[in-house]
Structure formats: C-alpha cells, structure tokens
Design a protein that fits this description.
The structure holds 2 protein chains of 2 kinds. Chain A contains 8 helices and no strands. By secondary structure, chain A is mainly alpha-helical. Chain A has one domain: MetI-like fold (Orthogonal Bundle). Chain B has 9 helices and 12 strands. Classes of the chains: A mainly alpha, B alpha/beta. Chains A and B meet through α5 and α6 of A and β8 and α3 of B.
Chain lengths: 219, 261
Amino acid sequence: MTQWSGYFGLILQGALVTIELTLMGSVLALIMAFLAGLGRLSRFFVLRALATAYIEFFRGTSIFVQLFWAYFVLPFAGISLTPLQAGVLALGLNVGAYAAEVVRGAIKSIGREQYEACTALNLGRWQAMRHIILPQALLVMLPTFGNNAIELLKATAVVSLISLADLTFQAQVVRSQTGNTLVPFSTILVIYFVLALLISWGVRSLERRMARGLDGVRV
Amino acid sequence: MSAPIIKIDGISKSFGTFKVLDGLSMQVMPGEKLALIGPSGSGKTTILRILMTLERIDSGHIQVDGEQLYHMERNGRLLTADERHLAKMRQKIGMVFQLFNLFPHKCVIDNVTLAPMLTKAMPRAAAEKRAMELLDMVGMVDKAKAMPAQLSGGQKQRVAIARALALSPKIMLFDEVTSALDPELVDEVLNVMRKLAAETDMTMLLVTHEMGFAHDFADRVLFFDRGRIVEEGKPDEIFRHPKQERTQGFLKKIIAAGHRV
C-alpha cells in the first residue's frame, strides 16, 4: 500500500507554489497591461511603438520559450533569476501582453460623449482618464481579466520545466516514485479546476460590487 | 454700448466633403439670450461644438470675451492655440448636451463637484456647498446622493445644467437640451432655464426645436440653413413675420409637425 498521505503533502506544497506564482504573475501582468494598454493609446509615437512592440512580441512567441529565456539565457547577460522570479517574469510579461489589449479595448469602448463632457468641464487629459474613463472602463475589463487570470493559472504548469516545484512538478514526482499516474494527475486536475473556479467567483463578485448603482436598480 | 462677448468672423468647417459652415460671421452681446433654429444639418449645433472646442474650425477667427479662441498672440504674431490656451478659454464657457452626458459611475453631487475640485482646486466642502445651492436651484437637492441611472431624463438634464453652472461660466451653450426628453418632462427643464435667464446675466446660446420656448426666451433668433444665417431678428419678427422664403417654409413644416409656436 503506497503512503498516499505523504504524497498528498507534496502536492499541497506544489499547490502553494502554483498559487504564489499565479498571484505574483497576475500583479505583474496587471501592471504591464495598464502600462502597455495606455501606451498604445498615447499621443506620443515612441510610447505607442514601445507598447506595440512589447505586445506583439510577447503574444507572438511561446510562453515556454520566454520562460527558458528568462531562466537559462538571461544569466549570460549577467542577470540570474531564481526559478520563481523567472516564472513570475515570463508569466507576467506574457499574460500582460494579452491583457494590454483588453485595457486598450475597454478604454476605446467608452463613448465619445463621456470624453466630450470632460472637455466641456475643462478636465485635463489625465484627469479625464483617471476620474471618468478608467473607472468605467475597468468594469468592461474585469470579465476578460478573469479569463486572463485563469489562463495564467494554467500556464504556471510550464514552470515545472525549470524545476520549480509547482503542482505539475510535484505530480510528476509522485508519479515517478509510485508508478501511479491516475491518482496524482486526477488530484491536480481537481485542484487546478477549483483554483480556476475561485478566480471566476472572485472576479464575478468584484464585478457585481463595481456595477452597483450603474443600472439604477441596486444602490 | 459694450463690446460683443462672442465675435465669429468668417468661419468655415467641413466634415469630409460636406460643408457645414460656410464663411459664417455673427456676434453675441454680453448677457444676450440667443436662439439658433433651422433644419438639421444647417450648422447650428456645430457652432456650439466649435465654441466648446469639441470641433476645430478650418478657417476664420473666433473671439470670446476679448481673446482669440483658437489662436493666441505671441510677440504680435497669431499662433494656433495650444492646449493651455484652450483650457483657459474653456473656463469662460459651459455646455449642456442633448443626451446629458452625466458620469454614470458618480452620484449626482459628485457629478457636480468633480470639475470645480479638479480644475479650480476647490476644497470639497466649498464645492459641495456650491453644488447643493445649484441643485436647489434646479430642484434636485433630494436626489443629491442618487446615481444618474435612477433619474428620469428631465432630472438628468437638470443635474447636467447644475454641473455646467458649477464652473461659473460666462457663456452657457444649450444643445437641443430637451430633444431627448419625453414630452411631459420638457417643461421642468425649460423652467430651470427660464429661472436661470431671470436670475443671472449669463450669455446663453440655445439650439432648439422648441419654437414656443425660443419665442419667449430669446432676445434674438437666428435662422440657419446650409451653414449660413438666412435671417435674424427679434423673436416676433422671425416667428410672426418671417421675410425669407426658407424661414417661412421651415416654420410651416415645424408647425405641421405639431410643435408649439
């Protein structure tokens, strides 16, 4: 009889690493999304070009290759990252590129009449963005941000390839030690699914809170 | 006799190949209440939008309150206005839109206090005190904490008027402010504007299809067609004894459509 309790302990440790990666990666992705999303809408050509280059590069190359660059190639440039740092960097930059387009699209979806009201009230460009456009655009972004966060969660599995002991890595360990594939991989399947459900649920409740009052029914 | 507060000198504006304004000139005196009427596409709304700097002109000059709107004088030369100059000029002008354009994520009082706090660095307490006075004037005090989505069209428009007034502009532009309202809500907005006209000496420009209101409210009526002023005069002259054929035709159509004159 295999000592399953010890192996479940391993998988739980892996789950913590996966959660940590997802949270830190999401924070970086969010920062990059707003930087690049606003950059693409900038009046200045240089900012637009930089943002576009970033978005196209990180959307257009594989997360797998990006991770290997961060972990194995950057050291040649004198930048050595821990597996966790490399994982957060690759995941954040990759998902941030997708989310940047979400930011841009949401901002563009706010009607011209809101911008015109801002002009008529003599708000500056940044004031209008900060107080009027972004708060409304955020609500448009949220559902897709939820998608992006779930994508990021699932993409964390690739970090097992640079020996970071996440869920997938630990499942491999258990598999090689017990020869059993069904149990560890069914377990992590369920855990990934539950984590994704938590993200969906969190984003939905955030959405409900932010939409309060906008439809004229709830206050 | 004092100087005009708005002096429009030969302005033209095209959207693509469509010439909305064609060498238009007009003047508005301080405190004057002006009604701009005419068929749609005649350029009357475009004039308001140009004065609010929502559209740029292709050629011509505009003076507001003694200063060039789209140009600035530097060392005796006339340059195209930069954003700072435009921001300075916008302080003189306020606008109310056909579709209210309230900020849906902010409650009524925040809609009114936002601009004074941001653009004039007014402290919150002072801004809210002023906002409550204005909301009182438009009869919306009890809805100060309501969200725009909870208001009727007429209520929204009254809040929008208070919001524009909060910046104390010298000139107010009203762009078809009752066109989007249900008929029974039109009067509550028009009453606020009557009150405003009676209690302040603000210059008011009004684009409207409410001919009855234009007749009572305006000191002068301008009839626009195809980017030009076809006829202007006292409300009685324009509405009772229009001289131009196009004015007569337009008024006939408007009356046939059931508008009050």
